[in-house]
Amino acid sequence: MTYQPFSSRRLWGTNVGISFKQVAIVSGMEDHLRRDKLTMQKFRPGRVLTFSSGEEALAVLGGEDVDIVICDTRLADMDGTHFIRILRQIPRFRTTPVMMVTTENAKNAVLDAISSGCTGYVLRPYSFETFQRHIVMAQQLQRFSEIEVEQLKAAQDMVAQGDFDDAIEEFEEILTLQDEAQKYYDMGCDYLFRQKFGKAIVSFNKALKINDLFAEAYHGLAQAYMGKGDSEKYKNYMQKAAEVHAQFDRMEEAKTLFIEILKHDVRAPNPYNTLGVRLRRNGDYPGAVHAYKRALELTPDDENVHYNLAKAFHYMGDREKATTELIDALQCNSDFPEALKFHQELLGTPWRGVAVRRPASEVSQTIKDV
Asked: Among 52, 134, 186, 202, which one is most buried in terms of CB atoms within 10 A?
């Protein structure tokens, strides 16, 4: 089977056939329900489900498969972002396209929708052309990993047929791009920082689809090795599948925190540093380290970020990396009381490096993690 990496594929196509078996529309406004239903009927879906209440929609959708959900900001009993968060907790709806169609154009409203897990954001009143463009994007996003999904299904069939060695080869091929999910989460955060919200939505949804794919591949490997009678490898790959799910939870938490920082701490000179501090205080040291490294891409000579990274490495028990980052902090600014104290505590000696005195206007204003 020919394998084409995620990163080398185009997301959008120009000749995309749009077809839906069943769609759902949720809005607390009767005129919005009517308008959205008329618009969706132009795509000739087999069935259109409409709901004014989020609770009613969730009760019905729990037993239904739909191709796309159109969600308004305000429902009869809850807001749209809350509805999307609950919907995303239903396994079959983890990657279903959910388009927010709304009159809300404030930055924080868009950020809330992205945080909840929407696949698109359309402002009312909309033209059919605008609506259609977002529908095409949502469908193409659904098809984003379709080659790997087919490969995964083929490998699962091989396991069912007892062809374990070929199945293992297929699963391992899928897992060759292990860092793709984190890469797309990072891209999503970068787009948020630059207020390119549409691209952020696409990146976060790509990350979700890749993460689910990898978890299924590890689970498949576990089943294949169980079929071969190798219980140790079975346990190992089941653990890896669990770790992939845990990584997704950490990335989702980091995304939510990052969005809150962008919403409420608009003067933060380096939001990745603030994210690192929050993650570290929550006990997510690997996540904090990753955030601090992203922060250094924005401000490489920021003594506070180097200091915070040193503290995170210290909490992880990596004395060598903690020392390296601490020295970098003091080389940026040797008149740094917390770093000088930490140097004495960590190494048992005072700092004797070259003195660096920054003008007050150049001293970092980012957060020091204590």
From this structure: 202
Whether residues 129 and 160 fall in one domain: no
Q: Is 262 a domain residue?
A: no
Do both 217 and 279 map to the same domain?
Answer: no
Same domain, 138 and 150: no
Measure Cα distances from 263 to 199, 259, 285, 350 in Å.
Answer: 18, 6, 24, 41
Q: Tell me: pLDDT of 180 over 50.
A: yes
Report the mean per-residue pLDDT for the chain. 88
In 10 A of CB 282, how many CB atoms?
14
Percentage of residues in the chain having pLDDT higher than 70: 89
Interacting residues of 244 by C-beta distance below 8 A, sequence separation 6+: 211, 214, 215, 218
Could you give the C-alpha distances from 226 to 112, 154, 163, 353, in angstroms and in order? 43, 18, 12, 57
**57 shares a domain with 128:** yes
Domain count, the chain: 3
Domain region containing 169: 146-256
pLDDT tens digits for range 278-310: 999 999 999 999 999 999 999 999 999 999 999
**Same structural domain, 70 and 131:** yes
* pTM (two decimals): 0.78
* pLDDT of 248: 82
- Predicted pLDDT of residue 16: 44
Q: Cβ contacts of residue 335 below 8 Å, gap of 6+?
A: 355, 356, 357, 358
Same-domain status, 56 and 167: no
The reply to whether 211 and 305 lie within a common domain is no
Return the pLDDT at 5. 42
Q: What is the CA radius of gyration of the chain?
A: 24
- The reply to whether 135 and 31 lie within a common domain is yes
Per the domain annotation, does 266 fall within a domain?
no
Q: How far apart are CA 115 and CA 201, in angstroms?
A: 9
Between CA 215 and CA 176 the distance in angstroms is 13
Contact between 219 and 238 (Cβ < 8 Å): yes
Cβ distance 322 to 314 under 8 Å?
Answer: yes
Name the pLDDT band for 243 (thresholds 50, 70, 90): confident
Tell me if residue 354 falls in helix, strand or coil: coil
